[in-house]
Amino acid sequence: MNSHKLEYTRQEMMAIATGRELRDGELAIFGVGLSMLAGYFAQAHHAPNIRAMTEGGVYGASPVGGLPWGIECNRISANATSFTNGVDALGFLVASGRCDVGIIGAAQVDKFGNVNTTGIWDGEIGDHYRAPKTRLTGAGGANDIACGAGRVLIMVAHEPKRFAEKVTYISSPGYLDGGNTRERYGFIGGGPSAIITTLGILRPDPNTKEFQLDAYYPFSNIEEIKSNTNWALKVSPRVHVVPEPTVDELKALRKVDETGALRKQ
Amino acid sequence: MNSHKLEYTRQEMMAIATGRELRDGELAIFGVGLSMLAGYFAQAHHAPNIRAMTEGGVYGASPVGGLPWGIECNRISANATSFTNGVDALGFLVASGRCDVGIIGAAQVDKFGNVNTTGIWDGEIGDHYRAPKTRLTGAGGANDIACGAGRVLIMVAHEPKRFAEKVTYISSPGYLDGGNTRERYGFIGGGPSAIITTLGILRPDPNTKEFQLDAYYPFSNIEEIKSNTNWALKVSPRVHVVPEPTVDELKALRKVDETGALRKQ
Amino acid sequence: MPQPKLISLATAVDRFTQNGVQYASGAALPIGSDAIVFGRELLRQGRNQLHAIFHCNSQQLNLLAGAGAVDKAECGFSGLEVFGFANGLRRSIETGVTQLEDYSNLAMAIRLLGGAMNWPFVPATVNIGSDIQYRSAFSPEEYPSTSKIPMITDPFSGRQLGAFQSLQPEVAAIHVSMADPLGNAIMLGTEWSRFELSRAAKKVILVADEIVHTDCMRQFPNLVRIPDIVVDAIVYWPFAAWPQSSPGLYDVDEDHMRSMNKALATEETTQQYLKDYVFSYQSHRDYLDMIGNEKREKITQTETSFLMDPYRKWILSADEIAKLVLEGDR
Amino acid sequence: MPQPKLISLATAVDRFTQNGVQYASGAALPIGSDAIVFGRELLRQGRNQLHAIFHCNSQQLNLLAGAGAVDKAECGFSGLEVFGFANGLRRSIETGVTQLEDYSNLAMAIRLLGGAMNWPFVPATVNIGSDIQYRSAFSPEEYPSTSKIPMITDPFSGRQLGAFQSLQPEVAAIHVSMADPLGNAIMLGTEWSRFELSRAAKKVILVADEIVHTDCMRQFPNLVRIPDIVVDAIVYWPFAAWPQSSPGLYDVDEDHMRSMNKALATEETTQQYLKDYVFSYQSHRDYLDMIGNEKREKITQTETSFLMDPYRKWILSADEIAKLVLEGDR
Q1: Nearest to A76 by CA among A105, A106, A47, A52
Q2: FRET partner for D188 with CA separation of 20 to 30 A, picked from B157, C112, C153, D131?
Q3: Are C67 and C181 part of one and the same domain?
Q4: Residues D28, D53 share a domain
Q5: Does A95 touch chain C (CB under 8 A)?
Q6: Which chains, if any, share at least 3 CB pairs under 8 A with chain A?
Q7: What class has domain A10-256?
Q8: What is the DSSP string of chain A?
């Protein structure tokens, strides 16, 4: 990082790029950590009327005292206007299609935007189920968001092991086998609209749904991104550089990230 | 009534006979009016630990200031320990099979305990739907109780027009065509255990499920009941006289019915 | 931060409804909480051919149907509890003006739950086996009806059960005890299906007896079962449920319940009722006068008034609310 | 009138659980409300071969699985949010001690809703199309699994969707902020699926941080989402969710969250943790000492404490509660 003389970290760039995808007034669901910070950054900066919620049904709240430890942490429960429940938040508002946008993370993502957060196996799982070599966090609410939200933003650190031709296990569906294969399951959600990484932004081809490189950051480049992607990454003809964070953006982000969690990496 | 020199009315006898069917500790759902009075009479008299609820999810309450005008009347909402909702009360607790007993009314009932509260037609409805000559109150929550409650008590004024070989319209299922026809629909509830009328008590034959005369009141008799029943009413070999209300029973009933609604008829 | 959404009753009806709209009522049972003033305003603005979705009849449906404004209705209970049959609804059904599709009370609630979930159907373990399943007022030619509550098979056990069509009403007017200017709402008393309806309906208008400061919601977030994010507009209207009750605020007006239902029994007396109690007022002030001081005093002497005590200190004044409504109506 | 149901934690575990029981946790997500003391007591009484039903992992499942007491588990999320992977659960899965059947968070909640309704299945518009649908830890030979989330057909549109198996756990321990002696309970903060679980489970034990007088429930009946009629027993145990948080009462204990999870990473350090934090206390007093005065003071300085203010005046004293427990344990 230091070699770039950046005034911001890669994670901060990723969070700001993600936040820029959110529009004012949208109903949005955030997970814990980076996802929440990207969301509340957007609210603090350019989308003051965003309607934010958590999976468990916390409404009208914004974090106090630093990064919440979880989506029902007291740091976010301290100023809510409504608490309901999981059936309401993930069901009535997300799986139903009412939520405009969700932000999810990934341990592994593939070229059709399918996400694995369940486990790492040595090789293919095979025809039968077998326990993973390394168990991860499971699907959580991300599967529900991936099926139901109007669009999904996937945030992931750009490392070769995380970008697979095909994920070993689909925890949360992207475009499955590409094209219109999502339709087979009648998902009301539109699928992932972007994979936003520590190196750039990938977006799906409108027809094949294969993710292509859409933009890179001032500190990254196309070759670096290709070499960190474990599939033959296509580059959009409209590939461009993502604008650097503005002073206002950084200020808003760091106000949300008051404990500086994002500045560490 | 006066000819019997009774110290209590027929409706009071019916309410007490119904209340006697309730056991201490049961989870019980009451409708408005007679049903509620019979239930709260039982609670006041011999079943202090009855757990009473209404269709809309009023728990832990007992009426104050007289007969409630409805099951969410302030007269019953004034001392509740919990208010929830219809999905909870009629779904989670009644349709699920968790409720031990429900008390419902009927405009018309037939020999298999099927109840009509929907309408009166001039003649058969016919193969097609047509609007009733006289529209009644519909099924309300009684259908849900009839399908799900452990057992159902039906309260009805004993008049020929109300006791049909077959009801014109089944609003709430009893034993349908008798025998084991309820099983076709997988109802978890056991069906009606008694029809308690202003003249006596009918109970189903264990096999055919046809309702038979099980008991009459001190002021009624078998012939009177038969002539007020529009099917060939069988008389149980164990037919007997229902014990008169005790002083304590009448006292408890009239404490609940503080406005004297039942004493009028 | 969300924006205030307070508007006037007239604006709400004008903005969110049209003839033929699927109109759902958020209420408790006939005697409980009910946004009947919204129904009065529908009539004042001449709305008709409504498709009414009421988990239960109330005086509102009784009035709307009695006035001939309801073509189709779906509900569980169609009476008025101790007040007897609902004469206006009854007359409109018997004369064929209104087609009433019968369900049970639970069926209506879980059909809204299904709509909130966006499930295409909801499993039915009730209403099957009865004429509710077999006969359809909306498809009268079909017997036994296969489009109303068809049978399906549980894939795990092979057991047969029914399937309800989910409901997603076009617009809902939901009565609540109190709301804040953003649309966070607290209901006192049973919710019936107002929670599910507030998610299932495409547009949600709250009709609130009181407006409270948002601080009240932050003190009692677990009571806020309808959060602002699902609400399109809020109408402030004290005694909105009259002659029905609002737990914590006022009791049922027994006299008017009876006289109103009596009036709705004939077309002629219904016209007189409309003249006297629907078209008669020009303002909320007029409306309160119509109820009458003495009557309002009587019904506010409710045994349930202690239920409102924890929230009174956050109640906004009529002036504060009026300012917000002025902005909202723009 | 219902009877008091307060019993001791030891009696609750002894009376309502046995080896192999289907044990469901009523909690918020990993960092929220959780009846983890019930899990500690399960271990203290040597319960094992549990079938754990947790909508999400928590430190409780992490602990139970890490201690080798969980044969089967079903949950949505299996991590610890910002505290990382759940090392105890992870280790038990990776070594094959625990078979974890994966679902999503919504799936777990609506499977409990289905259990509460007594529906044999629940429509699934999520989890289908992913490996969650195709791969089953409980039926590993089956691929694609037809018994886990089979496809069904909407009878109205012909559309294909999935079907979840409903859940009716044998016993549930549900953490609540406060309960009265009869079993009426108030939860502060999100319910997650505690409402549905309290109806779906065959036996329900509340674990309450505070016991309040029933008058509190009569003042706030709309907050009482778990009424006494569905509750079998109540256990009073302040700091019941520690090291997790209880909104209104205490914050998460960050240090212990980390050190506990670190300990659960290996069998050896888990044994030490059990010795120090599970088998170490003989009374609730001991338990509080184990947490430590300073720590308790720190975590009770929560930004959410204002949420408890309206209810404090009804809190029963330890002495009053002890008397009721004595009766209950008989």
Answers
A1: A52
A2: C112
A3: yes
A4: yes
A5: yes
A6: C, D
A7: alpha beta
A8: -GGGT-SS-HHHHHHHHHHTT--TT-EEEE-STHHHHHHHHHHHHT-TT-EEE-TT-EES----SSS-SSTT-HHHHTT-SEE--HIIIIIIIIITS---EEEEE-SEEETT--EE-SEE-SS---SS----SEE----TTHHHHHHHSSEEEEEE---GGGEESS-SS-SB-SSTTSTTGGGGGT-SS--EEEEEESSEEEEE-TTT--EEEEEE-TT--HHHHHHT-BS---EEEEEEEPPPPPHHHHHHHHHHSTT-GGGG-
Containing structural domain, residue D152: 122-165
Answer yes or no: do D46 and D186 share one domain: yes
Residue B150 Rama label (left phi>0; alpha psi -120 to 50; beta): alpha
Nearest-Cα residue of chain B relative to residue D198: B92
How large is the C-alpha radius of gyration of chain B? 18
- Where residue D192 falls (left for φ over 0; alpha for ψ -120 to 50; beta otherwise) is left
Q: Chains C and D: how many Cβ contacts under 8 Å?
A: 88
Please give the positions of A annotated as active site: 55
Tell me, yes or no, whether C288 and C197 share the same domain. Answer: yes
Which C positions 224-263 lie with beta carbon below 8 A of chain D?
225
Residues C127, C180 within the same domain: no
Does D60 reside within a domain? Answer: yes
Q: Dihedral of CA B193/B197/B201/B206: which sign? A: negative
- Determine the number of helices (DSSP H) and then strands (DSSP E) in chain D: 13, 13
* Residues C135 and C201 both lie in one domain: no
Instruction: For residue D172, give both structure tokens.
Output: 């549930």
Which of C228, C117, D191, D72 minimizes the C-alpha distance to A144?
C117
D230 and D287 part of one domain: yes
Residue of A59, A76, A81 best to disrupt the C interface, most CBs of C under 10 A: A81
pLDDT digit of tens for each residue in chain D (330 aa)? 567 899 999 999 999 999 999 999 999 887 789 999 999 999 999 999 999 999 999 999 999 999 999 999 999 999 999 899 999 999 999 999 999 999 999 999 999 999 999 999 999 999 999 999 999 999 999 999 999 999 999 999 999 999 999 999 999 999 999 999 999 999 999 999 999 999 999 999 999 999 999 999 999 999 999 999 999 999 999 999 999 999 999 999 999 999 999 999 999 999 999 999 999 999 999 999 999 999 999 999 999 999 999 999 999 999 999 999 999 998
CB-nearest partner of B131 from C96, C129, C194: C96
The residue of chain B with its CA nearest to that of D223 is: B82
DSSP, collapsed to helix, strand or coil, labels residue C197 as helix
Cβ contact (<8 Å) for D123 and C121?
A: yes
What DSSP letter does each residue of C21-64 carry, written as one string? -EEEEE-SSTTS---HHHHHHHHHTT--SEEEEESB--HHHHHH
In a domain, D116, yes or no: no
Report the C-alpha gap between C330 and A73 in whole angstroms: 40
Q: Tell me which chains share at least 3 CB pairs under 8 Å with chain C.
A: A, B, D
D158 interfaces chain C, CB cutoff of 8 Å: no
- Residue A9 C-beta-side C-alpha neighbours within 13 Å: 13
Same domain, D159 and D195: no
pLDDT, tens only, D1-18: 567 899 999 999 999 999
Return the domain boundaries, chain B.
Answer: 10-256
pLDDT tens column, D55-112? 999 999 999 999 999 999 999 999 999 899 999 999 999 999 999 999 999 999 999 9
Sheet holding B101-105, edge to edge: B82-83, B58-59, B51-53, B27-30, B101-105, B151-156, B192-197, B200-204, B211-216, B234-241
Chain A: residue nearest C183 by CA?
A81
Residue C27: inside a domain, yes or no? yes
CATH of the domain at D220: 3.40.1080.10
Give the number of domains in chain C: 2
